[in-house]
Write a structure and sequence with these properties.
The chain has 207 residues and is mostly helical. The protein has a single domain, classed as Up-down Bundle (Methane Monooxygenase Hydroxylase, Chain G, domain 1), CATH 1.20.58. The protein contains 6 helices and no strands. The chain is globular. It starts with 9 loop residues before the first helix and ends with a helix.
Amino acid sequence: MFRTTPKEEIFFDMFVDTAKKSCEAAILLDDLVNNYVSINEKINAIETIEHECDQCVHDIIKQLNKSFITPIDREDINEIVKVLDNITDAIESTAHRFKMLNVKTITDEAKVMSKLIVACTTELLGVMTELKHMKTSKTLYTKIIEVNRIEDKGDDVFRGAITSMFINDSNPIDVIKWKEIYEFLENSLDACEDVANIVEGIVMKHV
């Protein structure tokens, strides 16, 4: 029987706190690409969130190292937190690319992908919130499927953007810039799906 004590449930609460950082970073990235002003300040704000996420990861690992009993396998806790951190890392890396590559205007495809990242991190926050109720939750699987659906949509946008760029853009520098940015945007969505897939595997072991 899968039961957790309040002491053990702290891991689920810490997962939620970490996922919230991903949501905050995604919202800031979406603001950056849709309101492309005060770029340095907005990138710095995302960087601050990424540092806060790193602290969340550190706190979870510290808690894991001192816990004798854990609600799910220790390796699963470690894997979840590592991949949750990857989301915010990818978002921060994306944001920095706009300044590093001297981007002047934002493409419509980048705006669409940033919206998808917001949607995906929001749905993933729901996944992490429901994880502690995995035996009784009626929405956990639905949310996992939705994360996968959003990531699939992001793949479609990514492929379309790359195809269109190589067909229509005659400026090789722009092609190089945007190919890299699109890849980092896709990495953010991929990391969300990775977390959802890990959670799905955990649920299969415990339910």
